[in-house]
Amino acid sequence: MSSGEPLVVGVDFGTLSGRAVVVRVRDGAELGSAVSEYRHGVVDRILPETGRGLPPDWALQVPSDYVDVLRTAVPEAIRAADADPADVIGIGTDFTACTMVPTTADGVPLCELPGFAGEPHAYVKLWRHHAAQPQADRITALARKREESWLPRYGGLISSEWEFAKALEVFEEAPEVYTRMRHWVELADWIVWQLTGTYVRNACTAGYKGIFQDGRYPDASFLEELAPGFGSFVDDKLAHPLGALGDKAGTLSARAAEWTGLREGIAVAVGNVDAHVTAPAVQAVAPGQMVAIMGTSTCHVMNGDGLREVPGMCGVVDGGIVSGQWGYEAGQSGVGDIFAWFVEHAVPASYVDDAREAGISVHELLTRLAAVQEIGEHGLVALDWHSGNRSVLVDHDLSGVVVGQTLATRAEDTYRALLEATAFGTRTIIETFERSGVPVTELIVAGGLVKNALLMQIYADVTNLPLSVAGSAQSPALGSAIHAAVAAGAHPDVPAAAAVMGSVRRAVHRPIAENVKAYDDLYAEYAALHDYFGRGANDVMHRLAARRRSVRKGLHR
Ligand SMILES: Nc1ncnc2c1ncn2[C@@H]1O[C@H](COP(=O)(O)OP(=O)(O)O)[C@@H](O)[C@H]1O
Ligand SMILES: O=C(CO)[C@@H](O)[C@@H](O)COP(=O)(O)O
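# adenosine-5'-diphosphate complex -> structure
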């Protein structure tokens, strides 16, 4: 039965699942939520339709999995909240990025067309599809040569994760897909297109991932010099009207109303990115408040006072986090993903048995064992590059390293070294911002990894910053709900909505002076290894990546 209280729905499309939350507009109270795992998960070895093996560094997804989230998680969240759909005045969404799909003029993903199901390039390329590194390197090199004004806005390097590198990969490796595609679409916008029937590009992904700066994309002469025939890419496949964050993209269509059980005609917010939408959810909209969204990867987002050039950042975009402010982004491509890899592939069976007996996850067991160690007791230092390096080196041909292993090294030692390595990676990013005149005054952590208290303490000690923690366990979905409330006209703008709907617990983990000192020493070792392997002193990782690529390509021919 209707309570008469206006409600909104936020839906967060992550790497492995989509989560819906029903939120009260008046105070941000989360009344109910539901999760829907993607049926196909991350497709990185075999294409489901054909059983065809995929080359290295590929990561695809199947678009119908996202629609399943709308069909299942949204109505389940409404039921869990015991809410009346008639009270819901808007819906907002956020997505991983840069996650891209080639579509027809109507938004149909090419992989759903007859004849394209066996073509890997016709699928969604997930943010962590890293096979376009050669294309990214060429974009960066040419932009440097031509002194393109947009390059410094991306820290001097264009990522293989982004729209142009992935599109050039399609252009060069699957011409029939490139020719057939009418739009090269961020999933953040595709999902809004599914909800409203209208395609609107959001200002966030266009800016950070689509090289849209000062009202323009890279020009045709640049693209033509990059690859003959690619010059018309922006006009033919990419450019489209933009929407500001918090604006209404359109209204819920009859078809989407049927999927979700919500009322046709309610407001649908312009699409957004999981990281950026989290800033208002934790009330971090002022300059210097850095939000680290720690899950499979970590994104660092922060508003800054004006425009600065930060080497190796992902980007700085006008209105990229909150309309009217310069938003900065940096990130680490692998964080929880690295811990997951270790748990799956490097832990003896006896640990798995012990965890089962104790009724905890292997992560929790390793964390318990690692937590009783003194800092440095394991004698290890690791580099957190198992999924490449997003910031500040922007190089996905880099790989992981653990230095110091002996016959006495145990799984919990390496696990702890990996936790620490990711904290050192975050410190490298913070120091780079500070050196570039963008001070970081507060670190606020959100995302699934918040639950690991050892990890949080390590981050506080390594960065020597008090750590505030998101008040909500589903801050991206809450952030999307905040945007829905603004799009529906219930709050005047995103900062105003954040003030009443967002939530954060301040300084939950404080640095401990003696730990800070011990980590300063270990960080110096990390920094030396970082520069040795990452800045050209020894290119062994590039040589190994090239060899792996050529051997595996041969196998998949
Ligand atoms: N107790 C734990 N300690 C450290 N990492 C964990 C723990 N439990 C799960 N993880 C890792 O956290 C990641 C999931 O984070 P989450 O924020 O839920 O996902 P996503 O990034 O897809 O939104 C996985 O990579 C998983 O390996
Ligand atoms: O890169 C971005 C945002 O710019 C993220 O969407 C991407 O790292 C995926 O984040 P998750 O690890 O799935 O939370």
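# post-check
The domain at 283-470+512-557 is CATH 3.30.420.40 (Nucleotidyltransferase; domain 5).
Residues 14-15, 96-97, 127, 273-275, 293, 295-297, 299, 331 surround 5-O-phosphono-L-ribulose (ligand 2) (CB under 6 Å).
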